[in-house]
Write a structure and sequence with these properties.
The complex is a heterodimer of chains A (about 160) and B (about 300). With about 160 residues, chain A is an alpha+beta fold. Chain A has 5 helices and 5 strands. The radius of gyration of chain A is 16 Å and the shape is globular. Helices cover about 30% and strands about 25% of the residues of chain B. The chains are: A alpha+beta (about 160), B alpha+beta (about 300). Bound molecules: flavin-adenine dinucleotide and FE2/S2 (inorganic) cluster (2 copies). The site of one FE2/S2 (inorganic) cluster has 12 residues of chain A, from loops.
Chain lengths: ~160, ~300
C-alpha cells in the first residue's frame, strides 16, 4: 500500500509517497537521502537513528513513515546553516566528542534538543547523562560527549546558537 | 523500495489512521484478515522485525493516535484518568501524576529511553502484557481499572484481572483499550516502587516491586504489594496484606509481610537472573519499600 505523507523536514515542506510498511528511517535515508540518520539496530536500542519529531527526540527506526504524517522533522542536515556547522557540532569537534562518528548524528539531535530547551546555568553531568541514555556510543566512553554538550550550552548562553 | 542490506523489512501493511472513536471502532469491527491495533509501535515494530509475530499474508495496522480522546491525563470525581494512548513522556511531565501519583512517574522515568518514551504509550505497555511491563506494578497497587470499547459497548475490569499470561489479556477481539483510571490517593496513603536491572537505565527489569499503604504510624489500614518479572504476568500479591492490615507497622511486621510476599511468587531462571536471586530481591525490596512508605505516612 502506498501512502502520500506531508512532512516539514529541516524547515522545508515536502510531500512524499511511502510504502505503508516503511519506517521513517527508511523514508529519510532511502527516499530523501538524509544519510545523517544512521541505521544500526533497527529496534530502538542504540539511538543512531534519532531525529527530532515536533522538537522531541524519537527513534526513526521504531516509527512508520505513515505515522509521522504532518510532523515537523529535524535531522542533523537541518542543523547546518549553509556550509557552516551548528555550534553544537563545533563543540563536538573541539572537545573530541566523537571517534568513529557512527553515533554522532543521534547524539547531536538528542543533545541539541536538551540544550535548546535548557535554561539557567551550566548543564550538570547527571542531567546530560540521563538525556542521552538512549544513545549508545561504543568508542568514546561518553566523557567527551558530556563535555561537548556542556560546552554547547555555554555557547548558546554566549549567543552562539540557532 | 530498496531495503537496506541485512535489514529485516516489515511485511506488507495496510495502514489506517481513523480520526474519531466511532470511525476507529467501526473500522476494527469490520476489518478482514489479520489486524493489529497499534499506538507507539515500539513493541509492534520489533515484534514483526524480529519474527516474533509473522503475518505472511500482510496485516492491517490500525493506528489509534489520530483519535485525540484517547490521549491525555485528567482528574475527574476523585479519580485520575489516563487515555490508553497517553505517551510515557506525557506521564512524566503531567502535573496531576507528579502531585498525586509520583510512584507512576518514578516507574516511567526508568523505562526504556527518552526516545522510546516519546512515542511509547501506557496502553501499549499494558496490552503487550509482558511479565516485566513496568507500568503494571505501580498501577496495580494504585488499584487501577482498565476500560475498553468495541463497536457494541464498553467494559471495565480491575487491572488485576486484565492479564492472562505473557502477551495475553482479557481484551476481547475487535476491542480497543481506552482508559486507565485509579482513585486519586489521599494524604493517608503512600506508594513506592523500585526495580532491579543490570544497569539503572534502558534494561528489562530483573524484578520490579511496588507497594502501597493506607494508615498511619500506629496502624496500617490497607496494603497492596505488586511485582513484575516474577510470574507469567505482573501480579498483585494479596497474601501479605493480612499480615499488615490492623497492625502497627514496626520492623517485625514489615519483615514478616515481605517474607510472605516473597514466598508467594514463583519466579523462573532466565538470562537475566535466577529464580533464587529474584526471591531474595523480592523480600529485600518489599521490606525496604514498606519501610519507606511507613516513613512517608509518619
Ligand atoms: C528499546 C526498548 C526499550 C524498552 N524498555 C522498556 C522498559 O524498560 N519497560 C517496559 O515495560 N517496556 C519497555 N519497552 C517496551 C515498550 O516500549 C512498551 O511496552 C511500550 O509502552 C509499548 O507501547 P506502544 O504504544 O509503543 O505499543 P505498540 O507497539 O503500539 O503496541 C503494543 C501491543 O499492544 C497492543 N495495543 C496497543 N495499544 C492498544 C490499545 N489501545 N488497545 C488494544 N491494543 C493495543 C498492540 O496491538 C500491540 O500488540 C521497551 C521497548 C523498546 C523498543
Ligand atoms: S537504529 Fe534505531 S535505535 Fe538503533
Ligand atoms: S564515536 Fe564511535 S560509536 Fe560513538
Amino acid at each position: 500500500m502506498k501512502i502520500t505523507v506531508h512532512y516539514t523536514i529541516n524547515s522545508k515542506a515536502c510531500d512524499l509517497e511511502v510504502d505503508a510498511g516503511e519506517t521513517l528511517l527508511e523514508a529519510l535515508r532511502n527516499r530523501l537521502k538524509l544519510t545523517s540518520v544512521h541505521r544500526s539496530c533497527e529496534e530502538g536500542e542504540c539511538g543512531a537513528c534519532t531525529v527530532l519529531l515536533n522538537g522531541e527526540p524519537v527513534n526513526s527506526c521504531l516509527m512508520l513513515a505513515a505515522a509521522a504524517d504532518g510532523a515537523d522533522i529535524l535531522t542533523t542536515e537541518g542543523l547546518m546553516r549553509g556550509d557552516q556547522r551548528h555550534p553544537i557540532m563545533d563543540a563536538f569537534v573541539d572537545l573530541h566528542g566523537m571517534q568513529c562518528g557512527f553515533c554522532t548524528p543521534g547524539l547531536l539531535m538528542t543533545g541539541y534538543s536538551l540544550v535548546r530547551k535548557a535554561n539557567g546555568g551550566d548543564l550538570d553531568e547527571a542531567t546530560i547523562r540521563q538525556s542521552i541514555e538512549g544513545n549508545l556510543c561504543r568508542c568514546t566512553g561518553y566523557m567527551n560527549i558530556v563535555k561537548a554538550i556542556q560546552e554547547a550550552k555555554r555557547r548558546k548562553d554566549a549567543g552562539d546558537w540557532w | 523500495m530498496n531495503q537496506f542490506i541485512g535489514s529485516r523489512a516489515l511485511p506488507d501493511l495496510v495502514y489506517h489512521r481513523p480520526g474519531t472513536m466511532d470511525d476507529l471502532l467501526g473500522l476494527v469491527k469490520g476489518i478482514e484478515g489479520e489486524y493489529r491495533v497499534v499506538a507507539g509501535c515500539t513493541d509492534f515494530i520489533p515484534a514483526i522485525r524480529g519474527g516474533k509475530w509473522r503475518f505472511a499474508d500482510g496485516i492491517n495496522v490500525v493506528d489509534i493516535r489520530g483519535v485525540k480522546a484517547l490521549s491525555g491525563i485528567r482528574e475527574e470525581k476523585g479519580e485520575i484518568v489516563m487515555g490508553a494512548a497517553t505517551r510515557l513522556s506525557d506521564i512524566l511531565v503531567s502535573p496531576v501524576i507528579r502531585e498525586k501519583a509520583p510512584v507512576l512517574a518514578d516507574a516511567v522515568s526508568q523505562m526504556a529511553s527518552p526516545q522510546v518514551r516519546n512515542t511509547a504509550t501506557v496502553g501499549g505497555n499494558l496490552c503487550m502484557a509482558s511479565p516485566a511491563a513496568d507500568t503494571a506494578p505501580p498501577l496495580l497497587v494504585l488499584d487501577a481499572k482498565v476500560a475498553w470499547r468495541t463497536a457494541d459497548g464498553e467494559e471495565t475490569t480491575p487491572l488485576n484481572k486484565f492479564f492472562l499470561g505473557p502477551g495475553a489479556t482479557v481484551l476481547p477481539p475487535r476491542s480497543v483499550l481506552t482508559e486507565i483510571r485509579f482513585p486519586a490517593p489521599g494524604p493517608d496513603e503512600a506508594a513506592r516502587r523500585t526495580r532491579m536491572g543490570q544497569r539503572t537505565a534502558f534494561v528489562c527489569s530483573i524484578i520490579s516491586v511496588a507497594v502501597w499503604l493506607r494508615g498511619g504510624p500506629e496502624k496500617i489500614e490497607a496494603a497492596r504489594i505488586a511485582m513484575g518479572a516474577v510470574a507469567p504476568t505482573p501480579i498483585l500479591i494479596t497474601a501479605a496484606e493480612s499480615v499488615l492490615i490492623g497492625k502497627k507497622p514496626n520492623e517485625a511486621t514489615l519483615a514478616e509481610a515481605a517474607k510472605t510476599a516473597a514466598s508467594n511468587i514463583a519466579p523462573i531462571d532466565d538470562l537475566r537472573a535466577t529464580a533464587d536471586y529474584r526471591k531474595s530481591l523480592a523480600e529485600t525490596l518489599t521490606r525496604r519499600l514498606l519501610a519507606a512508605c511507613v516513613g512517608d505516612l509518619a
